[in-house]
Amino acid sequence: MPVRSVVADVTDRIIRRSAEGRAAYLRRIEAAATAGPRRRGLGCANQAHAFAACLPGDKAELLGGDAPNLAIVTAYNDMLSAHQPYERFPELIRETARRAGATAQVAGGVPAMCDGVTQGEAGMELSLFSRDVIALGTAVALSHATYDAAVYLGICDKIVPGLVIGALSFGHLPGVFIPAGPMTSGLPNDEKARVRQLFAEGKVGRDALLEAESKSYHGPGTCTFYGTANTNQMLMEIMGLHLPGASFVNPNTGLRDALTTEAVRRALSITANGNAYTPIGRVLDERAFVNGIVGLHATGGSTNHTIHLVAMAAAAGIKLSWDDFSDLAAVTPLLCRIYPNSKADVNHFHAAGGMGFLIRELLDGELLHEDVNTVWGSGLRDYVQEPGVGPEGELVWREAARESGDPKILAGIATPFAPTGGLKVLDGNLGRAVTKISAVAPERHVIEAPARVFHDQAELQAAFKRGELTGDFVAVVRFQGPKANGMPELHKLMPPLGVLQDRGQRVALVTDGRMSGASGKVPSAIHVTPEAADGGPIARIREGDMIRLDATAGRLEVLVDAAEWAAREPAQDDMASSQFGTGRELFRNFRAVVGSAEAGAAVF
């Protein structure tokens, strides 16, 4: 099926822009590919080390067999609710491999931090850099050259992008991503948001806030709002690295286990040992990344992926730009209403038809490339189905729903919620930035007001508590970019700004930090680049300067006389508070070499 002209044009220009880098990447992975089990290329002592601790049957298979050996790269820990279910996955994977006459080993573990735990704390300044640490850890895990394919166990914000970057450095190996699923629905999201705002206003105490949060985040699985973690899952499916319909099945269920075992069988079937060789470096091509961006817009997904997708693509020799995101946004309608864009959570989305329905609508709307490689087969049309459990507990497949189960949550291509998903790129004399307006009231798409300048979110919170944030204003929170302090998410800003907006003030946020996909109802220009610590124009803003954030026209400007603006010296911040403590001193070199947000904020 053809795609719309804008989708085709954006894809073609990405291909042209990436031609040299992509060709070099493909040459590298082709040179690394081998026929037959990879362990045969190792010396005898090397092989002996690799299977010394295996069970006798596995050792015999590895010693003399021709079957593949599967690497398990896991981000398991039991502090992170989304990853706790992974505790039992390695044994399930090993047993499945044995039944298929193959072997599987945990190749390595990578860190998995919870942004919900570190939000507003010093540890959040390690969050974005943890993505690149995970990529490095994945490379270390796979460096033993004894594996024929890999399965990747990861879900949350930086973990999936890090695993993808690491996997692409071993792009000759097939790879399947195995999710664990979202927790069951708890306290409704609108009630959680209501209690948060009451706490910010001082109308309820910490006991009420903690009770509400505990009822929201109450068990194993991914948080159910549509932030970066669940956007990751959507991306892995629409880009062909999950099994169809696997993203949003709850943990510790028969269907979840059936999907996991089938994912293992699929990974074993697409190695170079057989006839269906499907290396991950070939799956993630330019068309797959365009499909991912379209999915991001159609679902109103996390703005973090304007950073992560760029970094992931670069690992495959592909150059994405924010202009690609902007042009695809202009033709991609919003088909989903998931919190923070409505009361519904991802469980409701899944029940309404989920990924199978969404992919069909986007394919039929000529917005996705159908002719792509996937781990499931040839073409994205294979993903227009959903899994179930048969009478014997076996995995069965049925056609995806043709009608939405709840049109208030999931819409068809002919009746979208909005013409676009609300993600826009802003340009102007303050640089470039990203904004997401899907949850912002139309009358707030343009804000012009004087600047209130802060150098961290704690300063703004303190000013709010002192009652100093009166009248209309644009909060400028700077020195929050990757070079300054690792670009932490700044969600502690949203409750006070939301309170002020509800009081009738016209407020907005401009920052070189991050706000993820759950930034909500306050207009926000985020990821401003160049950042303040890199000499960006945001460092020249002074208290009281008129700022114009125009999401309609895609402009971000300071309304200061041009000659005066050019003559200004940028503000300085020694960022001393971000240099030490909570491990931050270990990331000094990361801060020194990290690229800009628009380039993926990567250290590679």
Automatic annotation (TrEMBL):
Binding site for [4Fe-4S] cluster: 156, 223
Cofactor note: Binds 1 [4Fe-4S] cluster.
Reactions performed catalytically: 6-phospho-D-gluconate = 2-dehydro-3-deoxy-6-phospho-D-gluconate + H2O
Signal peptide per UniProt: none
Domain Dihydroxy-acid/6-phosphogluconate dehydratase C-terminal: 409-601
Named cofactor requirement(s): [4Fe-4S] cluster
Pathway the protein acts in: Carbohydrate metabolism; Entner-Doudoroff pathway
The protein's role, per its UniProt record: Catalyzes the dehydration of 6-phospho-D-gluconate to 2-dehydro-3-deoxy-6-phospho-D-gluconate.
Family (UniProt): Belongs to the IlvD/Edd family.
Protein name: Phosphogluconate dehydratase
